[in-house]
Specification:
- The protein is of the alpha+beta class.
- Helices cover about 45% and strands about 10% of the residues.
- The chain has helices at about 25-30, 55-65, 75-95, 100-115; strands at about 5, 15, 20, 40-45, 50-55.
- The strands form two sheets. It has a three-stranded antiparallel sheet with strand order 1-4-5.
- The protein starts with a strand and ends in a 7-residue tail after the last helix.
Length: about 120
Protein backbone atom coordinates (compact mmCIF):
# COMPACT_ATOMS: atom_id res chain seq x y z
CA UNK A 1 0.00 0.00 0.00
CA UNK A 2 1.31 3.42 -0.91
CA UNK A 3 2.44 5.66 1.93
CA UNK A 4 1.32 8.86 0.20
CA UNK A 5 -1.34 9.92 -2.28
CA UNK A 6 -2.61 13.11 -3.88
CA UNK A 7 -5.91 14.02 -2.24
CA UNK A 8 -8.83 14.27 -4.67
CA UNK A 9 -10.69 16.81 -2.48
CA UNK A 10 -13.70 14.47 -2.43
CA UNK A 11 -12.83 11.59 -0.10
CA UNK A 12 -13.28 11.83 3.64
CA UNK A 13 -10.18 11.95 5.80
CA UNK A 14 -9.67 9.62 8.76
CA UNK A 15 -7.07 10.69 11.31
CA UNK A 16 -4.95 8.42 13.53
CA UNK A 17 -7.14 9.34 16.50
CA UNK A 18 -10.18 8.01 14.63
CA UNK A 19 -11.77 11.34 13.74
CA UNK A 20 -13.52 11.34 10.38
CA UNK A 21 -13.67 14.57 8.40
CA UNK A 22 -15.73 15.15 5.29
CA UNK A 23 -13.91 16.88 2.46
CA UNK A 24 -15.64 20.15 3.40
CA UNK A 25 -14.61 19.83 7.05
CA UNK A 26 -11.01 19.05 6.09
CA UNK A 27 -10.76 22.06 3.77
CA UNK A 28 -12.29 24.24 6.47
CA UNK A 29 -9.70 22.97 8.95
CA UNK A 30 -6.83 23.29 6.43
CA UNK A 31 -7.82 26.08 4.00
CA UNK A 32 -4.83 25.56 1.71
CA UNK A 33 -6.29 22.17 0.73
CA UNK A 34 -9.26 23.95 -0.88
CA UNK A 35 -7.09 25.77 -3.42
CA UNK A 36 -7.28 24.03 -6.80
CA UNK A 37 -3.76 25.13 -7.80
CA UNK A 38 -2.24 23.40 -4.76
CA UNK A 39 -1.91 19.62 -4.77
CA UNK A 40 -2.28 18.15 -1.30
CA UNK A 41 -0.48 14.98 -0.25
CA UNK A 42 -2.23 12.82 2.35
CA UNK A 43 -1.56 9.39 3.79
CA UNK A 44 -1.98 6.51 1.38
CA UNK A 45 -3.78 4.11 3.67
CA UNK A 46 -7.28 3.95 5.09
CA UNK A 47 -6.10 6.31 7.82
CA UNK A 48 -5.35 9.08 5.34
CA UNK A 49 -4.98 11.93 7.81
CA UNK A 50 -1.51 10.81 8.86
CA UNK A 51 0.03 13.56 6.72
CA UNK A 52 -1.19 16.71 5.00
CA UNK A 53 1.50 18.37 2.91
CA UNK A 54 1.74 20.61 -0.11
CA UNK A 55 3.09 18.52 -3.02
CA UNK A 56 5.55 21.00 -4.58
CA UNK A 57 7.12 21.90 -1.24
CA UNK A 58 7.40 18.23 -0.36
CA UNK A 59 9.26 17.53 -3.62
CA UNK A 60 11.62 20.46 -3.03
CA UNK A 61 12.41 19.31 0.52
CA UNK A 62 13.14 15.73 -0.54
CA UNK A 63 15.28 16.95 -3.46
CA UNK A 64 17.39 18.94 -0.96
CA UNK A 65 17.80 15.78 1.11
CA UNK A 66 19.12 13.92 -1.95
CA UNK A 67 16.07 12.15 -3.37
CA UNK A 68 16.56 11.41 -7.09
CA UNK A 69 13.59 12.55 -9.17
CA UNK A 70 15.34 12.33 -12.56
CA UNK A 71 13.13 9.49 -13.84
CA UNK A 72 9.85 10.94 -12.53
CA UNK A 73 7.15 11.94 -14.99
CA UNK A 74 3.90 11.69 -13.03
CA UNK A 75 2.86 12.78 -9.56
CA UNK A 76 2.75 9.12 -8.54
CA UNK A 77 6.33 8.66 -9.79
CA UNK A 78 7.42 11.44 -7.42
CA UNK A 79 5.57 9.91 -4.47
CA UNK A 80 7.01 6.47 -5.23
CA UNK A 81 10.53 7.96 -5.41
CA UNK A 82 10.00 9.59 -2.01
CA UNK A 83 8.87 6.30 -0.48
CA UNK A 84 11.91 4.49 -1.91
CA UNK A 85 14.18 7.27 -0.59
CA UNK A 86 12.64 7.00 2.89
CA UNK A 87 13.00 3.21 2.85
CA UNK A 88 16.67 3.50 1.86
CA UNK A 89 17.29 6.07 4.61
CA UNK A 90 15.62 3.85 7.20
CA UNK A 91 17.60 0.81 6.06
CA UNK A 92 20.86 2.76 6.22
CA UNK A 93 20.03 4.01 9.72
CA UNK A 94 19.15 0.50 10.86
CA UNK A 95 22.49 -0.78 9.55
CA UNK A 96 24.32 1.77 11.69
CA UNK A 97 22.71 0.52 14.87
CA UNK A 98 24.78 -1.95 16.87
CA UNK A 99 23.38 -5.46 17.11
CA UNK A 100 22.19 -6.92 20.40
CA UNK A 101 25.40 -8.97 20.57
CA UNK A 102 27.56 -5.86 20.10
CA UNK A 103 25.68 -4.00 22.84
CA UNK A 104 26.07 -6.96 25.24
CA UNK A 105 29.80 -7.24 24.47
CA UNK A 106 30.29 -3.51 25.07
CA UNK A 107 28.42 -3.71 28.39
CA UNK A 108 30.51 -6.67 29.53
CA UNK A 109 33.72 -4.91 28.53
CA UNK A 110 32.68 -1.82 30.49
CA UNK A 111 31.86 -3.96 33.51
CA UNK A 112 35.28 -5.65 33.40
CA UNK A 113 37.06 -2.30 33.05
CA UNK A 114 35.18 -0.91 36.06
CA UNK A 115 36.23 -3.90 38.17
CA UNK A 116 39.96 -3.48 37.45
CA UNK A 117 42.04 -1.91 40.20
CA UNK A 118 43.22 1.65 39.71
CA UNK A 119 46.78 2.03 38.54
CA UNK A 120 49.08 3.53 41.09
CA UNK A 121 51.50 6.11 39.89
CA UNK A 122 54.92 6.50 41.45
Amino acid sequence: MARYQIWNRKNSIITPSGEIFTAAQWTQRYPMTALEEIKTVIGGGVVSGTVCMEFTGMIENYARMGCDFSACETDQDYLTAIEAFEDAQNTAAANLMPSAEERIAAALEAQVMLSLPDEETA
